[in-house]
Amino acid sequence: MGAGMKILIADDESIIRLGLKAMLAEIGHEVAMASDGREALKLAHQKRYGFAIFDVKMPFTDGLEAARALYRYRPTPILLLTAFGDKELIERAAQLPIQGYLIKPVVEEQLAASIEVALRRFEESQAAAAKTAELEESIETRKIVERAKGVLMNGGLAEEEAHQQLQKAARDQQITLRQAAESILKSKGKP
Predict the structure, then answer these.
(1) Cα angle at 105 between 25 and 124, to 5 degrees?
(2) CATH fold label, 6-106
C-alpha cells in the first residue's frame, strides 16, 4: 500500500480527527488535520498531499465541495467520511471525483483497505484520463495533417506526394509532422 503518504484529513469533530490521525499514523502515514473544508483547502494549497479524507458535513465548506475543489486544483485520491448513509447524500457523492465513501465509525482495517482500493482506483482513472487525452491529441493531429495534405493536393500534388512533402518538411526542420502541417496551414492562411 502507499505507506508513508502525506494524508490530509478534515472533520469538524476533533475526536474523529484525532482517531483518524492515530489510525493513519499506526499504518505509517503522515497526517495533517483540518476542522473544516475551507481549512483543508488552504492546507492543500500550501502543501501537496497524496491522499485526502473529508467528512461530508462540516461548517463553512462541506466535504463534498472541498472534494470537488481539491480535485479541480490538484487531482488527489479522496475518501469521504460520514455518519449519514442517506440516499441523497450518496447520490451527490457519486457525482464527485472521489474514490470511496466510508460510514462512521471507521476501524483501522476498514480504513487501510479503503485507502488501498481508493489508490488503485485513482491510478486507474488517471491512466484512463491520460490515455483519453493522448487519443484526442492523436485525432486532432491527424485532422491537422489531413487538412495540410488537402492544401498541398489543391496545389497539384497527389495524396502520397503531399504526405511525403509534409514528412520531408518535418525532417528537414526537425519538427513534428503536426508542426509541419500547422506551418503549411498557417502559410496558406488556413487555421
Answers:
(1) 65
(2) Rossmann fold (3.40.50)
pLDDT digits (tens, 9 = 90+) for 79-131: 999 887 778 878 888 888 889 888 888 888 899 999 999 999 999 999 999 99
CATH code of the domain occupying 134-187: 1.10.10.10
Q: Could you give the dihedral angle defined by the CA atoms of residues 49, 81, 94 and 61, in that order, rounded to the nearest 10 degrees?
A: -70
**Is residue 142 predicted with pLDDT exceeding 90?**
yes
d(CA 38, CA 43): 9
Residues 21 and 125: their CA atoms lie apart, in Å, by 27
User: Could you tell me the three cell numbers for 53?
Assistant: 479524507
Please state, for a pLDDT cut of 90, what percent of the chain lies above it.
Answer: 73
